Amino acid sequence: MKLEYQVRAFEQAFEQYDGVLPLHRFLFTYFKQHKQMGSSDRRWTTRYLYSYFRLGKALKKEESLLRLAVADFLCNQTESMVISHYLPQLSDQLLLPVQAKIALVKDAYPDFNLEDVFPFTAALSEGIVKGDFLQSFFIQPDLFLRVKEDQQQSFLDLLAKEEVEVKVISNKTLALPNGSKLEKLLPDNKYYQVQDLSSQRTGEYFLPKPYEYWWDCCAASGGKSLLLHDIEPKVQLLVSDVRENSLHNLDERFQAAGIRKYQKKVLDLLQNNEQDLHDYAFDGIILDAPCSGSGTWGRTPEMLYHFEEHKIDFFSGLQKNIGTRVVKYLKPGKALIYITCSVFKKENEEVIEHLLATQALKLESMQSIRGYNDKADTMFIARLIKE
Ligand SMILES: C[S@@+](CC[C@H](N)C(=O)[O-])C[C@H]1O[C@@H](n2cnc3c(N)ncnc32)[C@H](O)[C@@H]1O
């Protein structure tokens, strides 16, 4: 395939993408509508788009195809026509570590500034190391599985047979290359869940006891509930979300995991839910809040390009509002677990400050769960106790 053809295919897809849908969903529909594109065309268009977005707003003054070449060089260890054409002097340096590649790009283009990749560093939460975090955008995150301990060996055997490069993170966690086709590799999903490493680590803060009654109030398709249940199978559970559809997915995942006893409600936590909840009192509430998702943009780099800063305030307001409304359903002495997959202080520490100032809560602990050095997401968690 000629360079001009690859470039045109990239440009056409780029022009049509407005950042509203996640890029992978847009591409799924786009390729369906452009049936003339063969598998190689689709692969290159996908690679170029993801590389391009990983550059965020860096080198904004340069021609877009040069920017694409720089991005593709930083993100990949294999050759491409764009790199060979626009950056022939760097095309034998593809195997260098990202840090060294960044230094080469800076030498060639002194205007290159890593902070332009993610132009919101002033808004970061405590403890996030700027340089490491920014650099991580050029490395594709892994696909993490949480597996039943006694099944791990059989999974490893299956993956070895298919020659999948798998890393054992712990006796419960495996890391696979992103894009691994799990439906084909591990079709029986009863004994594992796809769950990011940092998301798995949030479970260390839950500390449930047998027969306690917990509420996962933004449950979506149940990632945190499944984790909670894995930690303490005797926990009683209410799951809720404003989106009924995602609770259907939850039902399917619970069924696959063999969980049958749980309560479920569709609730909008921005409304008064007294009618549904008036006699409820929980031993634990997990509030995995709607957020900017900025700790997961290594997986959705299109956000580096399309995110609008004013949305941080929108999410912060939503989180404070929801947090304030759920506390009344917590028993005294029990824990509210506040989680986001955001790296922004306004969605993290600032929400906790607000809750401490307005509710009868005390802070037990809070921290960012930094995943950027482990090819994982970065999350935030706080454990608050009702007084
Ligand atoms: C970060 S996701 C939850 C992810 C889930 N806990 C997991 O582990 O997979 C946040 C969820 O909050 C829900 N949400 C957003 N606004 C809400 C509202 N006003 N009331 C209730 N849930 C809401 C969204 O539908 C979304 O499913």
TrEMBL record:
Domain named SAM-dependent MTase RsmB/NOP-type: which ranges?
A: 120-387
**From what organism does this protein derive?**
Pedobacter westerhofensis
Per the similarity annotation, which family is this? Belongs to the class I-like SAM-binding methyltransferase superfamily. RsmB/NOP family.
Q: Which protein is depicted?
A: 16S rRNA (Cytosine967-C5)-methyltransferase
The source's superkingdom equals Bacteria
Q: Which GO terms describe its biological process?
A: rRNA base methylation
Residues bound to S-adenosyl-L-methionine: 241, 268, 288
- Does the keyword Methyltransferase feature in the UniProt annotation? yes
Q: Where is the active site?
A: 341 (nucleophile)
